[in-house]
Amino acid sequence: MEHLSYTGLVLCGGNSTRMKSDKGLIEQDGTRWAALAGQKLHSLGLPVYYSINEYQFDQYSPILPAAQLLVDHPALPVKGPLKGILSAAEKFPEQGIFLLACDLPDIPEQLLLRLSEAAGNGPTPRSFCYSYQEQPEPMCCIFQSPTLQKILHSAHQGLLEKFSMRYILEHFGVECLPLAADEYVYFNNYNTPQDLA
Predict the structure, then answer these.
(1) pTM to 2 decimals?
(2) What is the pLDDT of residues 70-85, one digit of tens each?
(3) 16 pLDDT above the threshold of 70
(4) Which of 40, 127, 148, 188 stands the most exposed, by the fewest C-beta atoms within 10 Å?
(5) Which candidate, 94, 43, 84, 42, places its Cα nearest to that of 65?
(6) Secondary structure (H, E, C), the chain
(7) In the prediction, which pLDDT does 19 show?
């Protein structure tokens, strides 16, 4: 399946206060979480980039190709994950983004494929995320290019009331694909070292 209009973007973890380490560098069966997420996006035929901040470059460049590391644009007037997404939107203005956070290592490739198929159905591509019990899951979603450019324009104009991902999903027309209860387990959040035990 071809997805030439998308760029795969792995959001890397940064120095999580509760985890006390960079989530993207956690190893699972010999593979770092960031690389694992990248492999899943690559399996859909996507070019993959890794969203990092400037302080992460020295940690990630020995383990991932430097050309695939996308450092947050310092001039963007936003914070958090949104800064990484909009940095990619500036670099690839004609492309949509298939976003996957590094700290969702349990998500199987078939769920990514289903989301891709939902976004591609219909006369025009649509932005999509998963939801459970009507709550959107913001760290695995597809943003089409027109949606990204609207968010980017709003950011530069100072029109965003919040920078949270759920605010973005709710205010920029991102549709939801419901998860079954037995699928929601794949969205388990790993926030502390105890969660990994």
Answers:
(1) 0.92
(2) 999 999 999 999 999 9
(3) no
(4) 188
(5) 42
(6) CCCCCEEEEEECCCECCCCCCEHHHCEECCEEHHHHHHHHHHCCCCCEEEEECHHHHHHHCCCCCHHHEEECCCCCCCCCHHHHHHHHHHHCCCCEEEEEECCCCCCCHHHHHHHHHHHHCCCCCCCEEEEECCEEEEEEEEECHHHHHHHHHHHHCCCCCCCCHHHHHHHCCCEEEECCHHHHHHHCCCCCHHHHC
(7) 65
